[in-house]
Amino acid sequence: MQRFVNDPDAIVEETVRGFVKVHSDLVRLDPANDRVVVSRDAPVQGKVGVVTGGGSGHEPAFIGYTGRNMVDAVAVGELFSSPTAKSFLDAIKAANGGAGVCVLYGNYAGDNMNVKMAMRMAKKEGIEVLTVVANDDVCSAPAAEREKRRGVAGEILMWKIGGAKAALGASAAEVQAAAQKAIDATRSIGVGLAPCTLPANGKPNFQIEPGKMEFGIGHHGEPGVNITELKSANEVADDMLKIVLDDHDLATGDEVCVLISGLGATPVNELYVLYDRIESQLAAQGITTYRGFAGNYFTSLEMMGATLTVMKLDDELKALLDHDVATPAMGVNG
Amino acid sequence: MQRFVNDPDAIVEETVRGFVKVHSDLVRLDPANDRVVVSRDAPVQGKVGVVTGGGSGHEPAFIGYTGRNMVDAVAVGELFSSPTAKSFLDAIKAANGGAGVCVLYGNYAGDNMNVKMAMRMAKKEGIEVLTVVANDDVCSAPAAEREKRRGVAGEILMWKIGGAKAALGASAAEVQAAAQKAIDATRSIGVGLAPCTLPANGKPNFQIEPGKMEFGIGHHGEPGVNITELKSANEVADDMLKIVLDDHDLATGDEVCVLISGLGATPVNELYVLYDRIESQLAAQGITTYRGFAGNYFTSLEMMGATLTVMKLDDELKALLDHDVATPAMGVNG
Amino acid sequence: MSTFANAGAGAIIREVAAVIVENRGYLSEIDGKIGDGDHGNNMAKGFGRAAERITDADTLDAAMMTLSDVLMSEIGGSMGPLYGMFFADMADVIEGKEQIDVRTFGAMLAAGRDGVVAIGSAKVGDKTLLDTLFPAVDAFCAAGDDFPAALRAMTAAAEAGRDSTLDMVAKIGRASRLGERSRGVLDAGATSCCMILTAMAEQTAKRLA
Amino acid sequence: MSTFANAGAGAIIREVAAVIVENRGYLSEIDGKIGDGDHGNNMAKGFGRAAERITDADTLDAAMMTLSDVLMSEIGGSMGPLYGMFFADMADVIEGKEQIDVRTFGAMLAAGRDGVVAIGSAKVGDKTLLDTLFPAVDAFCAAGDDFPAALRAMTAAAEAGRDSTLDMVAKIGRASRLGERSRGVLDAGATSCCMILTAMAEQTAKRLA
Ligand SMILES: Nc1ncnc2c1ncn2[C@@H]1O[C@H](COP(=O)(O)OP(=O)(O)O)[C@@H](O)[C@H]1O
Ligand SMILES: Nc1ncnc2c1ncn2[C@@H]1O[C@H](COP(=O)(O)OP(=O)(O)O)[C@@H](O)[C@H]1O
Ligand SMILES: [Mg+2]
Ligand SMILES: [Mg+2]
Ligand SMILES: [Mg+2]
Ligand SMILES: [Mg+2]
């Protein structure tokens, strides 16, 4: 395992410590809980708080989206493991400006349970909490069971939209509705080319044979739809796009936001190669890419591979997408 | 080779095409040369143009630093290979706002030769060109032969400083002086944990045995000072810092900018772990980290490892470092 | 009828923790086959930390609450809420008791099981720790008033329950996406649950007077 | 005295390019040992592209200028300027000539060599392509007026020059940092230079009348 590690059990603590040092202009640590990263601006009195949280090892997700006009507070879990109910609660409290809090998180068993417990505790403390559960990962369950699908990089767009809506002074219910609309309009798919290793384990969780790829893989290496020959970048892009489009009701004239994220170890230039193809293929179908992102936005340690996320836009989503944002991982200057 | 590739010879073209699509708010392609990426703002009449260029495969370097208040135009080379003299010339022309152009680039044989030829051609066209050659990589030559040292991630800070100085209306000579001052105040060191593969070759250029690391490695896998046992993150951080400090005249009370860059495949969280240690160790020596960066700022395809860059600051450098910048790879809101 | 003193029985939980910590690698390895490979790490961290905070004088319910607190406030994941509720709800039943008899022990186990169901909403046959927990608790309660025999029945049923997951297709959690590919591997949670119950049974049996 | 016609001799460069393209993998492999492993790629791309733009009717100088242009405006790296100057400066010498004799050919080679030195500022013994180029050009010029013999002398000296880099320590370029570790490997540029000169000699010899 060729990695920079001290005690494997201390990685998250050290990561968060380094992170708040680097980004001290945008974020701070919750004084009550060192597993909660809070925007420098939060809580804003009268603004709906936006909270998320999830396992570590996906950096810059989740902490990197804390900041102005996006996420107010993030609960930080161990590597690939949901944060505690207490951390979700503390994040909710840190984000609470008296106008309610929306927890926008991904559909994983642990997160569901811990958010549920945190909500219960928050209610006792008089904080109104609404949730939206991201389920953009097309290959994690059939369309008929969308509620079973996992949340992946589409969460970023959900945070962007929800964060902008909250920044514009919307009510908790309106923020929830906007975030729900965003994730409902979003589909993602992942392709894995090489596995990743949790430092505490010292060896990969799963294998991908050289020359093969795992299509529809999850963010923790959850097995995908199938294992196929490793194809060319363009063929992979086309296959990914097909899965997304088949699940999506996109038509000529539609506008979308495209986000390509690397899984950690795939060179950044290859993400641009994929993006180039996706954008061209969408254009060939009369679909305009209104805004795009390509980079390591939501990783899985040093996994090789990439995810494609497509969000269908309308005027409201476009305006919210364009709204200024300043976070360590994403900056948009409207 | 587990990678997203079409024709290996087309990677750079596809990368640049995808890049300008994603970042069309900040950059555009030079209509005369598809190996030149230009800031949307450039050329600014009366402003000194800032140009750089280098081989591809280091994304987001070099193209990612094109934009407002940083680099005006970038010449793009093949993977790990200097851009052509013609591309440097076209970048110079695209950046030229009539007040002269500074080419701020790294000390590599190919770049030196191609910039030299481009300067000759630019002079014929009546454009004043000044250069600064980055040589921040401590392990690439002894202190007595500093002019032989290569440029690595310290180039980013040189561009930041030079770009800010130009944005503030300085003359070409003043921009050159500020960039030179920045790189003179900067030292870097790289550590490699796993090699990278050029897609056209299909196998790694060099090997690093599991359990070992290459200390002082270059950005193209140029061999370092020695190969040692892979140590803990903190030990590696300490060893890197020692090399940098031994070569640098830092004293208690000094302020520095620290930049940790991943080489491509090292998980981002580990970069924060390294940063946390470096910042603490500097603090223990009475040296304040005025501003820090940690992320994949200057990569080498999917190499594993990291570079440490330390720039000693004075009031001028601090002000220039804080100046607003908006580029795909770096945003600073003063 | 044999019983054991609640006071000092917190040591049982320390022994349980020792078994979990010892099996850290094994549990992660099983989880890695169809999950994300961290079950042993999560478990060892939570149980290991709790063990450091449990003293020899602690009652069983105090020790269980310590463990539950650590799981819920420091571990997270699925294990935080699932085993957190398991031990919290068990502790509730025995809180304040001086001696614990076979009936109380059975009621305690049943409450813990119900806590897991309440938070996790899984069912027997989903290939989770419930496939160990349900048959084990049932076997204990069905065994009557012979405490040692009930403990032995629980252990045997826990092992059988754990092994039953080998041939199951996962219906919940990370592994459920695998469909048929999840068959042929033990469930990690069912395995850790079996270790917990077996260690509890063994340590409890030693204390019976 | 034997000469060859400049018209149509552009085909020589196409043959040179074919050899380079064929040895793409080998040249990158050598470069990978002490450099960055792209020499074959850079060379094959430049020479391959140029070959497509050279016609059978081209003069040698026209073909050399085509190659030089591609290298300088499309390839970059070190090879763009180094071989770019090499072929441009050679082309200058023979431009407008109808027949090329042994003296002209020698002057052409010397001019190319000087172009490489002017842009690259390296010296013989630095472990670069100059270690092939210098002895080869010297041998050609020293061989007198027997054109075929001069070509053979050049080939032999180029091979010896290339092989001389095996035991050298690199003093310039990427490999120079290696110090003693750069010994024992051929220099990539010296190897490609030998291929170029050898192919040129072979193709030229065929054309001599
Ligand atoms: N809803 C649930 N109810 C009961 N047990 C569950 C449930 N979801 C998951 N599990 C158990 O959790 C185990 C995985 O635990 P662990 O690996 O620690 O968490 P994670 O899946 O978050 O990585 C599974 O093997 C399964 O036994
Ligand atoms: N200054 C120089 N003069 C002559 N030849 C040089 C010089 N610098 C490098 N070379 C040659 O260039 C070769 C490397 O070429 P290549 O791999 O294509 O370029 P790069 O080093 O930019 O990757 C070396 O093997 C050496 O022969
Ligand atoms: Mg997990
Ligand atoms: Mg090169
Ligand atoms: Mg797990
Ligand atoms: Mg090379």
Short recap of the structure:
The complex is a heterotetramer, with 2 copies of chain A (334 residues) and 2 copies of chain C (209 residues). Chain A is of the alpha/beta class. Helices cover 31% and strands 25% of the residues of chain A.
Walkthrough of the structure:
The complex is a heterotetramer, with 2 copies of chain A (334 residues) and 2 copies of chain C (209 residues). With 334 residues, chain A is of the alpha/beta class. Chain A has 2 domains: 8-184, Dihydroxyacetone kinase, domain 1 (Rossmann fold), CATH 3.40.50; 186-313, Dihydroxyacetone kinase, domain 2 (Hypothetical Protein Tm841, Chain: A,domain 3). Helix content of chain A is 31%, strand content 25%. Chain A has helices spanning 11-22, 85-95, 109-124, 154-167, 172-184, 233-246, 268-284, 315-322; strands at 27-30, 33-39, 49-56, 73-79, 101-106, 129-134, 186-194, 212-215, 226-229, 255-262, 288-295, 304-312, 325-326, 331-332. In chain A, the strands form 3 sheets. Chain A has a 6-stranded mixed β-sheet with strand order 1-2-4-3-5-6, sandwiched between helices. Chain A has a 6-stranded mixed β-sheet with strand order 9-8-7-12-10-11. Chain A starts with 10 loop residues before the first helix and ends with a strand. The model of chain A has no long low-confidence stretch (mean pLDDT 96). Chain C is mainly alpha-helical. Chain C has a single domain, classed as DhaL domain (Serine Threonine Protein Phosphatase 5, Tetratricopeptide repeat, Alpha Horseshoe), CATH 1.25.40. Chain C has 9 helices and 2 strands, in the order E-H-H-H-H-H-E-H-H-H-H. Chain C has a two-stranded antiparallel sheet. Chain C starts with a strand and ends with a helix. The model of chain C has no long low-confidence stretch (mean pLDDT 94). Classes of the chains: A alpha/beta (334), C mainly alpha (209). Chains in contact: A-B, A-C, B-D. One adenosine-5'-diphosphate sits between chains D (31, 35-36, 38-39, 42, 77-79, 82, 116, 120-122, 128-130, 172-174, 187-190) and B (81, 109-110). One magnesium ion binds at residues 31, 35-36, 38-39 of chain C.
